[in-house]
Amino acid sequence: MEKNEIRAVIKYLCLKKMSSKDIHSDLVETLGDSAPPYSTVARWAKEFKLGRTSTEDEHREGRPSTSLTEDNVKKVEDVVLADRRITIRHVAEVTGISYGSVQRILANELHMKKVSARWVPRMLTDEQKKNRVDISRINLEKFQADQENFLFRFVTMDKTWIHHIDPETKQKSITWKGASSPTPKKFKVSSSAGKVMASVFGTLKA
Fold first, then answer.
1. Which end of the chain, N or C, is less packed with Cβ atoms under 10 Å?
2. Residues in CB range of 102: below 8 A, 6 or more apart
3. How far apart are CA 41 and CA 23, in angstroms?
């Protein structure tokens, strides 16, 4: 489909009160790799919702931009989605687009930024999750039965392996994240032979 035809489809779906996200999903399902990136869909949907009627590009005075095109935006998006840990310099090398233009596309068109993956406890099985819920429910019942003394009689304990080395630093885990994407996570795993078990106990009673 031509650009103007795709924009006409976006305009029509906007009239049906569809969100930018749903419009983009519909286009991807229909057009596959030929679908425009989400940033393009969101920009045109916003224009149409503000009252724009034309699907033609507006005439701009001055020197035209040769890098901030829809094709280049899609190139950058495809490269980043294939490897979210890729650097801007590497994206520029792969796509043949200048470093500064890649920066502008990522920030202004794709609304992406680099964030560090957040450490979370190791992945739990369904049975382990159920056990945690059951234990929490039992403790809640005990607390409700004797709120005054429960916290002073309650002893909590946690343990963790402290590894001698961590093969992946925080800097290495930095990945590209879209505006609506969740923060990436990485699970704590046994990463080295040398490690020490640390156990910590706590109570409100002095």
1. C
2. 76, 88, 91, 92, 95
3. 7
Is 0.70 surpassed by the pTM of this model? no
C-alpha distances in Å from residue 128, one per residue of 134, 136, 174, 199: 10, 12, 30, 20
Instruction: Residue 155: name the closest of 187, 121, 202 by CA.
Output: 202
Q: HSE (CB half, 13 Å, CA atoms) of 23?
A: 27
Distance between CA atoms of residues 84 and 107, nearest Å: 15
Phi/psi at 194 (nearest 5 deg)?
Answer: -85, 115
CB-based contacts of 39: which residues, under 8 Å, 6+ apart? 73, 77, 109, 110, 111
